[in-house]
Amino acid sequence: MPSVPMFVKCVRRSTLRSGEMSIFGSGGCELCEAARMSEWFYEDEECWIAECESCAVPMVVWREHDANPSEEVRTRLHEKLEKVVEEFFDFEMRIDNNMRTIPDHYHAHARPKGGFYGYGLRRAK
């Protein structure tokens, strides 16, 4: 997958007035904020993919503040996540859709088969 220019950003918390909503949700959602706290691998107008701060695996985040994308959207997001893992890593993955910490904004993790955390995962050469 060719790299996409990093020009699309979600509305940041600081651009919203108190209590104001955007198409990306309220100003308090960490995933809407899309702060670059870890390594980013990909982004486009639909999603961004970065290393999860909590578990160190690649994670795809839908840019819309909604926990329930259509099956078509979910499939596209998963395909993009799989391509990032193929390009940047060397491990067999499984998609984890369980949104444990932020249940109201769709995101999915690429976890190593038989594992949960990504610390020490081999990178592609």
Characterise the protein shown here.
There is one protein chain. The strands form two sheets. A five-stranded antiparallel beta sheet has the order 3-4-5-7-6, covered by helices on one side. It has a two-stranded antiparallel sheet with strand order 1-2. The model is unreliable at 1-25 (pLDDT under 50). 18% of the residues lie in helices and 22% in strands. The longest helix has 18 residues, at 71-88. The chain has a single domain, classed as HIT-like (HIT family, subunit A). It contains two helices and seven strands, in the order ββαβββαββ. The protein is α+β, with helices and mostly antiparallel strands. The two termini are 16 Å apart. A hairpin with a 3-residue loop joins β3 (40-43) and β4 (47-51). It has helices spanning 30-33, 71-88, and strands at 21-22, 25-26, 40-43, 47-51, 58-62, 93-96, 107-112.
